[in-house]
Design goal:
49% of the residues lie in helices and 12% in strands. With 445 residues, it is α+β, with helices and mostly antiparallel strands. The strands form four sheets. Strands 5, 6, 7, 8 and 9 form a five-stranded antiparallel beta sheet that branches. β10 and β11 form a beta hairpin.
């Protein structure tokens, strides 16, 4: 079909030139030129419209009034005083940057009602276009699974429609995890000293850290570095980002085509909008600066004084969708723990849940349950005992529990399956308002 339009364009250009030359060198009537002037724009319009109709979604982009969609209207809290210099256009721009920074979805965000309301228009694209796009994306996933069947080891890809970069990251991460597991499994056969060698702690080395693994083998296996490097190079061959990205783009044609929202994506956008209002900056607690709090939390979970009562309380909080419990701070009045740094001073701590993207990067996404990655296996064991685990790479505490939140739909709870939390320092107290902590509002973004 593309070739047909190409030849039609050639025919139009040649015909136009021939018609003009004929009119110039022949004695034609005024009617001839009138017909030419009327006919050329009609033919040109027919070609443009025909090609747009053929291209479908990437041709015409119908608005929400023609194709259907969702209009979200958010009103500013009337009980709160607006900051000096507040401009509704800036808030609309910050929402646009968070929701649709590359203008892939044709989202319209505009102030309404004297700037006290924000209107967000999300076109759904119509059932026919959504179905075509979904089928095309399923075809992309199927071809990617077939192409990288060996690297994925039969696992299905789950990246959402149009998420090219996420699809590439998913393929590469799974390839690295599977290749790393094979490498560790092959080590005892090559280096007999590594059989049942727990001192080397190879399972705590982060996936892909080849140099760190080679150093550990050189120390505990007694092999030559050149031999170790050659063995790792031969047995660890994960896919490269560039290779996978090139292949995926060959299937999709482009990673920046404008797309419409599905119903599930609209729900995701609502969640993003909620997070625009207030952002908090958190630092992970670590073994060096926050040892007192971390030791207390580890003892609180891994050696509970009253195990049955502690387990019951943890399950109750999980069903309510609340954060896991923490021990009572040493400074009960200020609710803080001492740190090892004078410039940092006492701090308070809380659990912060990890999002889906971070779980994927850490190898804790639900798909890893089938392949049984090292980190997943350790977290599953800790989860079964209701204990915390020390992350070996950044020396911070992580806690996992089964998702039993009764405040979310059953389908969402089943899809989420597990929850993961990292121990973080709370934001610093606002020096101007001692009862509030430092935050960044959506107006500041």
């Amino acid at each position: 079909m593309q070739q047909l339009f190409f030849w039609l364009w050639i025919l139009f250009v040649v015909g136009s030139v021939a018609t003009i030359l004929y009119g110039i060198y022949r004695d034609v009537s005024r009617l001839y030129w009138k017909v030419v002037v009327c006919l050329f724009p009609m033919l040109l319009s027919a070609l443009v419209v025909g090609k747009a109709v053929y291209r479908g979604q990437s041709g015409f982009k119908l608005g929400v009034d023609l194709v259907g969609g969702t209009i979200l209207v958010y009103e500013l809290d009337p009980d709160k005083e607006l900051k000096e210099g507040y401009k509704p256009e800036q808030l609309a721009a910050s929402l646009k940057r968070r929701i649709d920074p590359n203008d892939l979805y044709n989202v319209t965000i505009r102030p309404a009602s004297s700037g006290k309301r924000i209107e967000i228009i999300l076109p759904t694209g119509g059932a026919r276009e959504a179905e075509k796009a979904e089928e095309a994306w399923k075809s992309v996933l199927a071809e990617a699974e077939a192409k990288y069947q060996a690297a994925l080891e039969g696992q299905n890809l789950t990246a959402g429609r149009g998420r090219v970069e996420r699809l590439v990251a998913e393929i590469v991460n799974r390839s690295e995890a599977n290749e790393w597991a094979k490498l560790l499994k092959a080590l005892p056969d090559k280096f007999p000293k590594m059989k049942d060698n727990k001192e080397a702690k190879l399972d705590e080395i982060k996936i892909g850290r080849v140099s760190e693994l080679a150093s550990a083998l050189e120390k505990h296996a007694g092999g030559k570095r050149e031999e170790i490097d050659a063995f790792i190079k031969e047995n660890y061959k994960p896919l490269s980002d560039a290779e996978v990205l090139t292949f995926v783009k060959s299937l999709t044609g482009s990673d920046s085509q404008r797309r419409d929202f599905t119903t599930a994506e609209i729900d995701d956008i609502k969640d993003k909008i909620k997070k625009v209002g207030s952002l908090e900056f958190r630092l992970l607690a670590n073994q060096v600066d926050d040892r007192a709090a971390m030791d207390a939390v580890r003892k609180f979970y891994n050696e509970p004084a009253k195990g049955d009562e502690f387990k019951t309380e943890s399950e109750r909080l999980a069903k309510l969708g609340q954060l896991p419990p923490l021990p009572e701070p040493e400074d009960k009045q200020n609710k803080t723990w001492p740190t090892t740094r004078d410039d940092l001073g006492p701090c308070s701590y809380s659990w912060v849940e990890i999002g889906r993207q971070e779980r994927l990067l850490l190898g804790l996404n639900n798909d890893m349950e089938a392949s049984g990655g090292d980190r997943w296996t350790r977290m599953a064991a800790a989860r079964a005992k209701n204990q915390v685990e020390l992350m070996p790479d950044n020396q911070t505490l992580i806690f996992s529990r089964k998702c039993e939140n009764q405040k979310i739909p059953d389908a969402e709870r089943e899809q989420k399956k597990y929850e993961y939390f990292l121990l973080c320092r709370d934001p610093q107290v606002d020096p101007d308002k001692s009862d509030e902590r430092l935050t960044v509002s959506g107006q500041d973004l």
